[in-house]
Amino acid sequence: MRALDDIREEYEFLEADERYRLLIELGRELEEMPAALKTDATLVRGCSASVWVYPTEANGQLHFLADSNAAITKGIVALVISAVQDRPAAEVAAMDIAAELAPFDLRNQLSSNRTQGVPNMIALVQEHAARIAAA
After folding, report:
1. Signal peptide location in the record (predicted)?
2. Rounded CA gap, 7 and 110, in Å?
3. 80 near 92, Cβ under 8 Å?
4. What string of pLDDT tens digits covers the 135 residues of the chain?
5. Is 47 a catalytic residue?
6. 4-134, what's its fold?
7. Are the CB atoms for 61 and 86 separated by under 8 Å?
8. 65 by DSSP, 3-state: which?
9. What is the rounded CA–CA span in Å between residue 67 and residue 115?
10. How far apart are CA 101 and CA 72, in angstroms?
11. What is the Cα–Cα distance from 41 to 20, expressed in whole angstroms?
12. What's residue 47's pLDDT?
């Protein structure tokens, strides 16, 4: 998975249509999430498309599997995940993920339908991180 800074650098130089294509490409680059993990327990509430996020932890580092049934939404999920992937759980729990994503200006780049679930994705990721950090 690409680093968020690398994605941001590329994103800033693109026009609107190209930004959509980049998001779709990012979604395609997500590690495949097994169908068995796409359950009600891993479903992100409040998204217009179906979004699933599943956390794992190894050696103190969080690793997320995620997917969506909509290409643009899957790219947005990839952005969220790239901000936190393979970082310590305590660090992720304390991060301001919304601030990390602010330079992408998703609210002005995409329809409100596509971005309405982003706060819920962020909250779910941080809930998982806090739970794992406390364990």
Report:
1. none
2. 17
3. no
4. 889 999 999 999 999 889 989 999 999 999 999 999 999 999 998 887 899 999 999 887 999 999 999 998 899 999 999 999 999 999 999 999 999 999 998 877 766 666 678 888 999 999 999 998 988
5. yes
6. Sufe protein. Chain: A (3.90.1010)
7. yes
8. strand
9. 15
10. 15
11. 29
12. 80
Show the tokens assigned to 103. Answer: 């330079």
Return the exposure string of 95-125: e unless at least 16 CB atoms fall within 10 Å of the residue's CB, then b. Answer: bebeebbeebebeeebeeebbebbeebbebb
Letter for the amino acid at 7?
I
Q: Hunting for tokens 């800074």 — which residue is that?
A: 5
| Residue among 4, 23, 47, 84 flagged as catalytic | 47
Helix (H, G, I), strand (E, B) or coil at 116: coil
Q: Helix 4-12 vs helix 16-29: angle between axes, to the nearest 10 degrees?
A: 160
Q: CA 41 to CA 12: how far, in whole Å?
A: 35
